[in-house]
Amino acid sequence: MSKRIAIVGGGAGGLHLGLYLLARGVQVTIHTDRRPEDYRTQRLLNTVAHHSITIARETELGVNHWPTEQYGYYCHYHHFGGEQPIFFRGDFKSASRAVDYRVYLPRLMQDFAERGGHIEYAELKADDVARVASAADLVVVCTGKGPLGQMFEHDAAHSPFDRPQRMLCVGLYKGVAEEPTRSVTMSVSPGQGELIDIPTLTFGGMAHALLMENVPGGDMEVLAKMRYEDNPRAFLDTVLEKLEKHHPTVYRRVDRKSFDLANSPNDLLQGGVTPTVRHTHVTLGGGKLAIALGDVQAIVDPLCGQGANIASHAAFVLGEEIVRQSIYDERFCETVDAKRRDRILGAARWTNLFLQPPSPELMQLIGTMSQDRALCDEFTDNFNRPEAQWDRLASPQRILAWIGEHRAPAALAA
Amino acid sequence: MSKRIAIVGGGAGGLHLGLYLLARGVQVTIHTDRRPEDYRTQRLLNTVAHHSITIARETELGVNHWPTEQYGYYCHYHHFGGEQPIFFRGDFKSASRAVDYRVYLPRLMQDFAERGGHIEYAELKADDVARVASAADLVVVCTGKGPLGQMFEHDAAHSPFDRPQRMLCVGLYKGVAEEPTRSVTMSVSPGQGELIDIPTLTFGGMAHALLMENVPGGDMEVLAKMRYEDNPRAFLDTVLEKLEKHHPTVYRRVDRKSFDLANSPNDLLQGGVTPTVRHTHVTLGGGKLAIALGDVQAIVDPLCGQGANIASHAAFVLGEEIVRQSIYDERFCETVDAKRRDRILGAARWTNLFLQPPSPELMQLIGTMSQDRALCDEFTDNFNRPEAQWDRLASPQRILAWIGEHRAPAALAA
Question: Which range of residues forms the domain containing residue B400?
Answer without folding.
Answer: 360-413
